[in-house]
Write a structure and sequence with these properties.
homodimer; 353 residues; alpha/beta; 5-stranded mixed β-sheet; 3-stranded antiparallel β-sheet
């Protein structure tokens, strides 16, 4: 029996650990420490259960409309999907269809090369500079498309809208995708560029700033033509993806803007406080405008810090990769969680002196 | 600006219409006319909203366990996804990786050729016989994999487990996928074959018999090795797909077996009654073991019937395709809905005499 000969074999991605224990301090997957908007609870209670027997609206019209209105766009400028991973994978498939390599940073979100391989898209990575900044000239070479997160992950480094405009303007023949998963924590969105450039696609998510990682909602914004192509590809092979509860709860999360802004402000405040504490403890880090800080200690290796924190039931993220193996990516939690983290780090740093 | 040159252009799939009016009788997408299990309502009411800020369990462990237990399998023999479309697409990508063409019927579920095209899998369709049955000798030629629904869609025709075994046995070098979306309406699942054959994958869904099309839950069952390959491919490019509400509600639907069986029995009873009525009205149809009947009238063209029913606010499914353009695919609804359909058909048939 040789059926195994024809199987696609891959190295599975290992996501950040999802410990089940409630007593763990979980700062490893950039989730929001605050619950979703209060209205979400009421909606779940009143959910018309009988509708679950019916397929969801394939267009997620209500959610699309709510997002379009919120961002001052037309409904045909918004595409929603099952988390931004789904949206980005679909965008790779739709827009990166050239024989030339697409470009993205060498240190960046770990799924870009995975999707490129999956869809047989050639790619080339561009090294970040010594301060973990993107170098604009790298993105002016011949290419089949460009993608980068802004702020970048896992560095947290934000590039100004002028940088984005420079790249988009220099590449009129390809689509430039800006992955703004972390834009709501102090960065400035490049959305205003949509009215000037046809080749720009902006992707955002409900998983971070909208406290809904558990609901899997992501979305892309661009001009009508761009979004139309994306929808055609999506509908050509799967009509029904986002389920009814996500469609309904997503609308509610967009509506409650005051709550959204208050949570983001709290996270920003905690982050800025944490930066001071980290410096006091001997850490350095590129300045972050995300809901995490990417920090390295002056003398203790990243792997050691990671393990020591884990033994104290505090989970952060660490990669055994060139250039970044001494860094920890620390999600900004509640003030109480960060107090506990600072205490633990103080112990570890003291013990290693 | 030439960015449009590199875009993937496709013909978008047109799903069955999803009319929003509540007064419509919707018999066009094979949804279940009964609501999900009563326990689902309670779960939604009591849902721990704060957990929505966290990513879902990537393995959907609770749901996987519930399904494994229900079907008498080990948890490592079950893979869950966002509807069976998601599961099937992933199975195509994982298992149909040969240069030889995969085989499926010429009249069948309309996404098989779409996924084959998407993943550049060569394929060959095998014509159904004049009674819309699969011909076993067609599936004994050299191939890179086999897939068919059982019962087949849109015909509703069921092939005996012996037929499935014959095909699986004759093809030890490839994976055979049996898409049992409609198996709970009187057909006999080929699941018992899993203990005898390594190369069989059985796919089922919550969208039909479990009244949860709106939640997007599908699953595959096979031996550990087969399921392991499928998981590796899935996790290699998207860790978090099924959201938290689907994971929780899905378990509840599996638990309430009495409700599940009672709903299916009602649908079967209504279908058998409907067969008699259709015959009285001059329709012919292959015998169906699904939650729909694929019927053609002795003198009125399918398109005419479709339009006439639509003008009476009754939606069924019709395809303008060779061999089946005179057929309507009629979902089995409640007895009341079918009464209204019979009444409407009687009017139309009388007017066309």
């Amino acid at each position: 029996m040789n059926w195994e000969n024809n199987i696609r074999r891959v190295v599975p991605y290992i996501p950040g650990e999802q410990p089940r224990d409630k007593d763990v301090i979980k700062l490893n997957t950039n989730e929001n420490p605050y619950p979703p908007a209060p209205g979400v609870e009421k909606l779940l209670k009143d959910f018309e259960k009988a509708t679950l027997r019916l397929y969801p609206d394939p267009d997620s019209e209500e959610l699309t409309k709510a997002l379009a209105e919120y961002y001052g766009l037309g409904p045909s400028q918004v595409f929603v999907g099952v988390g931004s991973d789904d949206v980005l994978a679909m965008a790779f498939l739709t827009f990166f269809n050239s024989d030339k390599p697409i470009l993205f940073p060498d240190i960046t979100y770990s799924f870009y090369d995975v999707w490129a391989d999956l869809y047989r898209i050639p790619y080339k990575t561009c090294p970040l500079d010594e301060r973990f900044k993107l170098r604009v000239e790298d993105y002016k070479q011949d290419n089949g498309g460009i993608i980068f997160p802004n702020p970048n992950a896992p560095t947290g480094v934000f590039e100004a809208v002028e940088f984005v405009e420079d790249v988009v303007k220099a590449n009129p023949d390809v689509v430039v995708i800006v992955d703004e998963a972390y834009i709501d924590f102090g960065g400035k969105s490049c959305l205003p560029l949509l009215s000037k450039y046809e080749n720009l696609l902006v992707v955002q998510t409900f998983s971070k700033s909208r406290s809904m990682a558990g609901m899997r909602i992501g979305f892309a914004m661009g001009n009508e033509k761009l979004i139309g192509y994306l929808k055609n590809v999506k509908f050509s092979f799967n009509s029904y993806t986002m389920n009814r509860t996500s469609q309904v709860l997503g609308v509610e999360a967009v509506k409650d803007d005051a709550y959204f802004k208050a949570c983001n402000a709290k996270i920003i405040e905690t982050r800025e406080w944490m930066k001071v504490k980290l410096q006091e403890l001997g850490f350095t880090f590129p300045d972050s405008l995300a809901n995490f800080i990417f920090a390295a200690h002056e003398s203790i290796p990243g792997k050691v810090l990671f393990e020591e924190l884990k033994s104290r039931r505090i989970f952060v993220r660490h990669w055994d990769k060139p250039r970044i193996s001494d860094y920890l990516r620390i999600t900004i939690g509640t003030k109480e969680q960060m107090d506990a983290l600072v205490e633990a780090l103080r112990e570890i740093v003291t013990a290693h002196r």
